[in-house]
Structure formats: structure tokens, C-alpha cells
Amino acid sequence: LKTTLATEEEFLRARKQIRAQYVYSRETVTAEAFWQGQMEIIDHAGRIDTLADELAAVTPEDVQRVVQTWLVDDQRTVGWQVPDEGSTTAGVDVPPLVEAAGYVSPEPQLVWGLDGGTSNAHGFVRTELANGIVILAQPRPGDEAVEASISIAAGQSATGDTTPGLPSITARMLNRGTRSHTFEQFNEAIDGLGAVIAVDADRDDVEVSFHSLAEDLEPVFSLAAELILEPVFPSDELEKVKQQAITGLREQESDTGAMASRALREQLYPEGHPYRIPVSGEIDSVSALTSEDLATYHQRSFGPNVTTIALVGGVANLDAVVAQVERVFGAWTVPVPGARDVPPVGPPAVTVRKSYVIRGKSQADIAIGYPSLPRSLDKPYFAVNMANVILGQLGLMGRLGANVRDKQGLAYYASSSFGGGTANSVWTARAGVDPGNIPRALDGILDELRRIREEPVTDEELADAKSYLIGSLPLGLESLGGVAGLLLAIEKYGLGLDYLERYPGYIRDLTQDDLLSAARTYLDPDRLVIGISGPESIEAEGNTDA
């Protein structure tokens, strides 16, 4: 760059990416406030509205001048890292875990819904195409960006497939080559548009999501659809993805938190239950996967009748969204079997416990679970959820944090969660402890669980929980991705398009007696599932070496 001007293609690509990132970075109220503060420090707050025009005026000659002036050798600092011999990641390119683009609404916060309801103040709209694709949208004609999440009910709970890791590896391979683009060509096309396309898989769904400038919606939507409709699963790319996945699985085997979760899962769900199957797979199952396995799974599991699309941002109206979806998916007409219902599970007759020993560790992790009532529109579900907020989320993780960590000093962290589900909503408590403190930490957690079943919460706790649940909702919906995630939840759980209007009232109506009754009925400290992982010294029955 000091001696040769950037080519026109390079320059335009870089400028597009910078402009796109600037637009994306201003989507939320919080980010807008940050930018105003930064610009006021540098120059003046109003400059946030002229920065895009300034960027458009930059030339390749400007870039070369700046490089020659400031990127000089005698001001350079160089650092490098040499991996340890025998490191499991030495010489292996391990990418970060791929997550769907954007915010996915946390189950404990977005909890109230109602069936029906098409009139709403937030401009949410819904329709269904002839081929079965469900479309939800929030058109915002003035926005410069757009985000879409394409959710396909192709996880193992939906399809009934029992091969660990098959949906996950299939998802990770979608962008590794299509009938029209190689992996490299696909990435170049996305980079040139300043867009992001991400792929993820969980127990229920495979999700392809994208974030782009509104002006580029058509080409980006086409590329996202290409991943879903035309993957070719090249064998050379599959070997790379499998190696990356296996490296991640080996790392999990040395992670006490991951292994405690595994012990919990293996006791919560019986053999044959889809939620017992590890989403990321097992080393043997992943190693054995072939391109043919992925192609077969894709053909029998991906279909328009199990696809939901949520789009938020710079489109004029629902008709414009429908036109885009019909353009890329209109010819996709072959249905697949509908998603299966997830079978519910009950709690054990008495508390059960399983441990995994990881030699050489100094910390232990505890995961405690209880399969409770399914997510529903009934008050008890929301009452249990609010009780959990008080138990393990408020402030520095609620009563658990105050007692087990702060007061007794038994844990590095302690918290609880209550995740919604169509079959069961599992209450979970987690703690990281010194191995010698496991018995006392367990007692402390169980004491707090018993107390919330036996004593009404205080007026202050109830008020704080209501404020948290209502007040955190708009923060989660600042971004386009946050709203897209909510729209998918509305469809999956039948919450109704007027969900946001009705939600605060239902939270405010909950009483101390509601919480006490629900906790007594749907949380049982004598029928828990406990998973533990730590060094050889952990106290547990039936330890299993990892």
C-alpha cells in the first residue's frame, strides 16, 4: 500500500465493509449514545450524521498517503505466541463457536404470551406462503440495515435422527460449498457486500441468519437461500470441519463446566430421548460422518413446511418481504415430515447424582436440574420463572449468589436459570467451587431452594423481580436481531403478535402467594438431578473418568 495504490475492487470492497459496520454499530439506542459521546470527545456529536459522507469521499490516494505517513517501521510492535508442545490445538485452526447472528431472547425474560392477536403497536406482521413457509416481519422503511433469521425445524428433536452431531455438522457445512460457489467464492461475495451470514444448530432447529445493508437485501437473501437449497458438502471441507469439531469436543472433555452439564443431561433424559443426544456430537460419531450422510440428512429434513423466516429492518412493508421470500424460495415445494413433538420427562423418584473426574483440575463445577412444567400461557409457569429470578438472577445472582458465594464464600459463582421448552422447562442451578466445598455448596443451594418454597418472598424482592423482567425486555429488543429472535419465539410458542403489549400487565399481576404456590408445586428439592465434574478428590458416587 505504500508503493502501490489499492485496486478499485479492493478499495470499493473495503469502503463497503466499513460503511456497513458503521451502520450496524448504530442500530441500538445504547450504541447511538456511545457514538455521540465519542464524536463529542473527538469533534462534535453531530458528526455521526456526516461520517458516512466523509467515508464516501475517501480515495485510494488518501489511503496511500495515510499509510506512508503513519504506518512506518520504526513505530511497529510485533508479538507472537508459540504453542506448548502437545497442545490439543497446536497447528489446528479452531474457530469460535458459531452462533446465530443477533440477539436470541433469553427464556427467563420473554415469558408471557397469548394465542391469537394480530393487532399490535409494534408493527409485527405475519403471513404464510403456499409452500408452508411462515413469514414474520417488522418493516422499518427508514432503516439502513436489515436482519433476517431463517429457522428450519431440522434439529434432532424435530427429525428423530439419533446420530450425535449430524445436524450440527450439516449446519456448519452449509456455507462450505454450493452448486454456485466454493467456500472461498461465497466468503468473497459476502465480504464484498459488507454483510454477515451465520449458521447455527441446536436441539430443535437449524438457523441461517444474515445482517446486511437494506440496499443489498436482494443479493444477500439470495446467498442465504443458496446455503439452504444448494449445499454440496465437499469432502475436503468436511474433513476440516470434522477436525475442528473433534478438537472442540476434546476441549470439552477437559472443561469441568461442560462435563458437569453432560452429567446433568445424561440423567435428566433417558436413553432414546432427543435431548440426551449431545448437539455437538461425539468424537466417534463425528469422525464417521460422510458427505453422503449430510446430503441425505439435508434432503429428508430441510423443507419449506418446517421453515419460519423472521425479518426486521429496512423494507417498505410485508408485501416487500413476501416478494423477496417468494423470489428465492418460491420454487421450494417439496415438503418433509413435520417436526416431532418432544416427549416430556419427569423428575426422578429421589435425587440422583453423577460425576465426571478430570485429572489435574483444581476447580469443580456443579449443575443441578429439575424438569418442571412446560412453557405455557398459564400463570404457574411465569410464577416459577419469577421465583427463579429472585433465587438466582437478581443483582449478583440472587439469593444463591448472596448466600453460597458472598456470605459463605463457598463458590466462585452461583446462579440459576429457568429455560422454557415445549415439553419441559428445566430449572437449573450452577456453581463453581473448590472441590472440598462441594457438600457445603450443595447444602447451601438446596437450603435456598427449600426457603423459596416455604417462605413468601419479600415485598422488595417481588418489586425488584418485576422491575427486572419488565425493564430488561426493551434492552433485549434494541437490535434488529433481538426483534427477529422475539418473532421466532412468538411463532414457536404461540405468543401472539400483541405479545409486547400484554406482557407487562401479566408480570405486574403476579403476587407473593402465586410464587410460593408455584414453587411448592413445580420445584422439589428432594427429586433433583445433580451433575458434578472436577479433580480426583470430588466426593460423588459412580465417578467416571473423562
Low-confidence stretches: 86-119, 540-546
When the domains are counted, the total is: 3
Q: What is the CATH topology assignment of the largest domain? A: Cytochrome Bc1 Complex, Chain A, domain 1
Shape: globular
Radius of gyration: 25 Å
The proportion of residues in beta strands is: 5-15%
CATH homology superfamily name of the largest domain: Metalloenzyme, LuxS/M16 peptidase-like
| Helicity level | 40-55%
Strand order, main sheet: write it out: 1-2-6-3-5-4
Number of E strands: 12
Q: Classify the secondary structure makeup into a structural class.
A: alpha+beta
Mean pLDDT: 90
Write the CATH architecture name of the largest domain. Answer: 2-Layer Sandwich
The biggest beta sheet is recorded as:
6 strands, mixed
Report the span from N to C terminus.
Answer: 51 Å
DSSP helix count? 20
Specify the CATH class of the largest domain.
Answer: Alpha Beta
Overall description:
This protein is of the alpha+beta class. The chain has 3 domains: 8-75, no CATH class; 125-329, Cytochrome Bc1 Complex, Chain A, domain 1, CATH 3.30.830.10; 352-545, Cytochrome Bc1 Complex, Chain A, domain 1, CATH 3.30.830. It contains 20 helices and 12 strands. A 6-stranded mixed β-sheet has the order 1-2-6-3-5-4, sandwiched between helices. The chain has a 6-stranded mixed β-sheet with strand order 9-10-8-11-7-12, sandwiched between helices. Helix 6 crosses helix 12 and helix 14 (379-392) crosses helix 15 (394-407). The protein is globular. The termini are far apart.
